[in-house]
Automatic annotation (TrEMBL):
Classification via SUPFAM superfamilies: alpha/beta-Hydrolases, Nucleotidylyl transferase
Domain Fungal lipase-type per the UniProt entry, residue ranges: 234-370
Domain Methionyl/Leucyl tRNA synthetase positions: 3-58
Keywords from the named record: Aminoacyl-tRNA synthetase, ATP-binding, Ligase, Nucleotide-binding, Protein biosynthesis
CDD domains, sorted: Lipase_3 (cd00519)
Highest taxon listed in the record's lineage: Eukaryota
Pfam families cross-referenced by the UniProt entry: Lipase_3 (PF01764), tRNA-synt_1g (PF09334)
GO biological processes: lipid metabolic process; tRNA aminoacylation for protein translation
Protein name: Lipase -like
GO MF entry, a single one: aminoacyl-tRNA ligase activity
UniProt source species: Paramuricea clavata
Keyword field contains Protein biosynthesis: yes
Family to which this protein belongs: Belongs to the class-I aminoacyl-tRNA synthetase family.
């Protein structure tokens, strides 16, 4: 049975329309008899493969027969003199090129035929690259495949990594616990409020570090341990007040990014804020991880705290303090921390990295990424801000533990246009629903993250009641957020 059907316009013979009346006519049977089947195939292959007129040229068919005859004679000669041919290693450049192209022509680069990780990653494409195994769809892909659901860092390329696959699956129950750890970080007395947070009341505080940082604020982070959860929690405080927010915005707009130890470049303000806390806190974090090496490591933060949690988790993994399947990063309303190189580095080191976003949350779009036209995909090149981690998008105004969510796996990776990056979502903040966008940043899972501790966990935490005070805070927030949107045009 034929495996394909050719479709052309007119069939020409020697560049002229075939016609019985003019005698310019040739049947397939006559052509096979005259040129042989293989000679005819060569001529047909050269005739054209589009809907344009196909031109069968007899000189091409004659030339094909000559080439086939020459090839046959050469093969006979090689067989007869095979003992005189070069032997030994086939590692020269010419040998490798020959092998690669032979594999390609013989179908040896067909990655999709490989059914498991080991056979996939041991298989080579025509360019010599390993095929890629994607844990998400459990399929083998060639480099650059458009149907590969995995990002670059999720793909398995080395056979030795097949038994180290970490399946990144979002846990909404864990996220609900993490948001209370974020809320606790806004307090200067975490130990006092842990018992009031029923979701995480089995934790006991190991150390809280609170120090002055840029903008006249107090940057803070803490480490706590729960033997019931068998977990070590690390949480960072978000932006504390108006003056700090203005300082944060201005420094992001004016200062160039700085190189990060683990790789890539990050915003200077975020890096400096982490240093203020981490230089003292990491000692206690390391002690807890050494004391309880089998405990899970939970790293979290809201807003600015999410950026600090991102950097801290990357450093922990970069320094080999735990394994990839043991550390989980959950951030809420996190801004873009660095450029694409940092995002790529982070995703490779921290596969269990989730960015939880709440509908119109304005901060998750800041600092703005580079696009050709607003509303088009973020550009990864050029050092512009770029998100890391898998986005978990809650697309409704009221966000509770049971609210539906979307795991964002569309393109471009980490900047899925079908989630918070959808122009239909973020354009609401320009400026018709600015207050609602601010509220969506302040509230996650029905609690006001930054002020929960002030109510000692007893206040009415419905989204409606929490948002009612936002109108009184308009003058407090609108200037820095407008400055953020100025970055759409003036970001350095």
């Amino acid at each position: 049975w034929p495996i394909s059907v050719r479709a052309n316009g007119h069939i020409l013979l020697n560049s002229e329309k075939m016609s019985k009346s003019t005698g310019n006519f040739l049947t397939l049977e006559q052509a096979v008899e005259k040129f042989s089947a293989d000679g005819l195939r060569l001529a047909l292959a050269d005739a054209g493969d589009t809907i344009e007129d196909a031109n069968f040229v007899e000189k091409m068919a004659d030339g094909g027969i000559l080439k086939l005859y020459t090839l046959l004679e050469w093969l006979k000669e090689m067989i007869e003199t095979k003992d005189e041919l070069r032997s030994g290693s086939m590692e020269s450049f010419k040998d490798l090129v020959f092998i690669k192209y032979s594999n390609a022509w013989l179908g040896g680069n067909d990655c999709k035929d490989q059914s498991d990780c080991v056979s996939c990653t041991n298989h080579k494409t025509w360019s010599g690259e390993n095929c890629r195994w994607c844990p998400q769809d459990m399929a083998c892909h060639a480099q650059g495949s458009l149907v590969n659901k995995c990002s670059r860092t999720e793909n398995i390329v080395n056979p030795d990594d097949c038994d180290k696959i970490v399946h990144a699956k979002y846990d909404k129950n864990l996220a609900h616990k993490m948001i209370y750890l974020c809320a606790l970080a806004y307090s200067d007395d975490v130990a006092k409020y842990i018992p009031k947070a029923s979701e995480v009341d089995t934790f006991h505080l190991v150390k809280q570090v609170t120090k002055p940082c840029s903008g006249g604020a107090l940057c803070s982070g803490f480490v706590a341990v729960s033997h019931a959860e068998k977990a070590i929690a690390i949480s960072f405080r978000g932006t504390q007040h108006f003056k700090q927010l203005v300082n944060e915005v201005l420094r992001i707009l004016v200062e160039p990014k700085k190189s990060f130890e683990a790789g890539g470049q990050v915003q200077v303000y975020f890096s400096d804020a982490l240093d203020v806390v981490w230089n003292d806190l990491q000692k206690y974090v390391n002690e807890e991880m050494n004391s309880y090496p089998t405990y899970k490591v939970w790293v979290t933060g809201h807003s600015l705290g999410g950026a600090l949690a991102s950097l801290a988790s990357t450093l922990i993994m970069y320094n080999g303090k735990t394994t990839k399947d043991n550390l989980m990063l959950y951030t809420f309303g996190q801004p873009r921390v660095g450029n694409y190189d940092y995002a790529f580095t982070h995703d490779g080191l921290v596969p269990l990295s989730f960015r939880v976003t709440h509908y119109r949350d304005i901060v998750v779009h800041l600092p703005t990424c580079k696009t050709l036209v607003p509303g088009t995909p973020c550009i990864a090149l050029g050092g512009w801000p770029y998100h890391h981690g898998k986005e978990i998008f809650y697309g409704s105004e009221i966000m509770t533990k049971s609210s539906p969510y979307k795991t964002c796996e569309g393109l471009p990776h980490n900047e899925d246009l079908g989630c918070s990056n959808n122009p239909a979502v973020w354009s609401k903040c320009l400026p018709i629903e600015l207050l609602a966008c601010i509220d969506d940043h302040k509230q996650y899972f029905g609690i006001s993250v930054g002020t929960w501790w002030k109510n000692q966990g007893k206040g009415n935490t419905s989204a409606m009641n929490i948002s009612s005070g936002s109108h009184q805070l308009l003058s407090f927030y609108i200037i820095p957020f407008l400055l953020f949107f100025a970055s759409l045009f003036f970001y350095i």
